[in-house]
Amino acid sequence: MSGRMSGHGRRRLLSALLAASALPAVAAARRFANPSEAPQMKTHAAGRHLIALPAGFEILEGSEATLYFGLDAEAPQVRLTLLATQASPAAWTARVQQRVRALGQARHQALSRPMLVLERAQPGGRAHLMRSHEDPQLTHVLRSEVFCLVGTAIAHLEAESYRVAPDEAEQRLLALATQLASPATESAPGPGLALGPLRLAADHVQEIANLNYRHTAHADLLFSLRIDAMAANAQPGLLQRWDRKLPLLARAMPGTPRTLRRGPLTLAGMAGEELLTQAKLDGRTVQKFSAESSRPRPSLATPLLTLALDTEPVGPPERWPAPAWGEDEAVQAWDAVARSLRPRPGAV
């Protein structure tokens, strides 16, 4: 690779490659076996599992799950997205009206009419249905969506109607809207899929979820958890994928990153691999840790789990705050979180 990469380019390349994770082991990061050393933790329901995160981490709006109502390629799918965690009825109404206006103002180019086909408030005033064209050029693909106010959370259910008739898709969405619940205890929400303040016990057969948790006081601290009940075990594995990508990184950014630890671990009772790396970005030390499970069989109870910790700050470098964690704090928190991940009783 010729020429000098910009700071933004280096950050993008490193982030992309570290998503796969691993380097030849050079040093063993400290393991904190003594529970008294672990940070203060809060337990969250995550999908059909429980995860304990250091105090201050909360689920991010935009965390989502895709539900599959069959195993073939044409089976209906529904996406559930957490749009807000603390919303008043007025805020929910404003969110709905904003979406209705946006769809009503957008034009379908082929049909010369608004993208919005219909919108209808549901009895009870806590759900609102919309049907619109998915694409301004296509006439046969419709999107149906329902905005729901569940306690203080705003949930969004969405399905494309080319797989089934719009009425059938919307019947499913409205049924799911009535099944959404706001559990009294987040760490024990009951059966079904948990997405922060939402719980959904539906009749889908598979699911994929992406949950992100950021520290409320430190924007450079992000834990993420991907839950995939459909995929077979990743081949090649986490560490082998990283080793294959390492030469590209070595050419572009000699001497970085540094491996703190790599090897096997147990994740939610399943065998897996972990990789802990540290690198310099614009003079700042950042940690990028990842772990991936393997499991005996794909199922709702034994999904492919991918856990990650990223301490890269957001925004331009000149506005970055001081790092919230150093190497020891990051490893300490990682070990506590990875140990805590476990199946949630009664979830399946």
Short description:
This protein is of the alpha+beta class. Helix content is 21%, strand content 36%.
What does this 3D model show about the protein?
Helix 1 (7-18) packs antiparallel against helix 4 (238-252). The strands form 3 sheets. Strands 3, 4, 5, 8, 9, 10, 11, 14, 15, 16, 17, 18 and 19 form a 13-stranded antiparallel beta sheet that branches. Strands 13-12-1-2-20 form a 5-stranded antiparallel beta sheet. The chain has helices spanning 7-18, 89-105, 166-179, 238-252, 327-340; strands spanning 41-47, 49-54, 57-59, 64-68, 77-84, 107-108, 113-114, 116-121, 127-133, 142-150, 153-160, 193-195, 198-200, 206-215, 222-228, 258-267, 270-281, 284-293, 304-310, 342-343. The protein contains 5 helices and 20 strands. It has 348 residues and is an alpha+beta fold. 21% of the residues lie in helices and 36% in strands. The protein has 2 domains: 7-57 and 214-343, Protein Transport Mog1p, Chain A (3-Layer(aba) Sandwich); 72-193, TATA-Binding Protein, CATH 3.30.310.
CATH topology of the largest domain: Protein Transport Mog1p, Chain A
Number of strands: 20
So what's the CATH class of the largest domain?
A: Alpha Beta
Q: Biggest sheet, in brief?
A: 13 strands, antiparallel
Distance separating the two termini: 50 Å
Q: What gross morphology would you assign?
A: globular
- Give the DSSP E fraction (strand runs of 2 or more residues): 35-45%
Total separate domains: 2
Low-confidence stretches: 1-5, 19-36
Q: What structural category characterises the helix and strand content?
A: alpha+beta
What do the pLDDT scores average to?
A: 87
Bin the helical content.
Answer: 10-25%
Order of helix and strand elements from N to C terminus: HEEEEEHEEEEEEHEEEEHEEEEHE
CATH A-level architecture of the largest domain: 3-Layer(aba) Sandwich
Radius of gyration: 22 Å
* Number of continuous helical runs: 5
